[in-house]
């Protein structure tokens, strides 16, 4: 179990958040509802989606590395 208050827990949460927002950007109804704001609190979802789509190779490699770390090393 990964604790959210540890550093690796924050990394896991951040990676899952970025991957989820990038996936939601591909769904038309959710894209117009959730990712329409670019500023403020709701803008965090938009910015995470942009990071996930522009840096998809780095995010995927980070997800694989974090999965290996959580499953085998922790």
- Mean pLDDT across the residues is 89
Residue stretches low in confidence (pLDDT < 50, at least 5 long) are: none
What does the overall shape look like? elongated
Radius of gyration, in Å, reads 14 Å
What fraction strand? Answer: under 5%
Gap between N and C termini, in Å?
9 Å
Number of strands: 0
Tell me about the largest β-sheet: none
Q: In which range does the helix fraction lie?
A: over 70%
- Tally of domains: 1
Function: Involved in the early part of the secretory pathway.
Pfam family, one: DUF1242
Family: Belongs to the KISH family.
Keywords: Golgi apparatus, Membrane, Signal, Transmembrane, Transmembrane helix
Question: Could you characterize what this model shows?
Answer:
- The chain has 4 helices and no strands.
- It is an all-alpha fold and 74 residues long.
- The protein has one domain.
- The longest helix has 19 residues.
- It is elongated, with a radius of gyration of 14 Å.
- The termini are close together.
């Amino acid at each position: 179990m990964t604790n959210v208050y540890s550093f690796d827990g924050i990394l896991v949460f951040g990676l899952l958040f970025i991957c989820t927002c990038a996936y939601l950007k591909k769904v038309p109804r959710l894209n117009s509802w959730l990712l329409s704001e670019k500023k403020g609190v709701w803008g965090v979802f938009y910015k995470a989606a942009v990071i996930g789509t522009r840096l998809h190779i780095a995010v995927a490699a980070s997800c694989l590395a974090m999965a290996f770390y959580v499953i085998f090393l922790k």
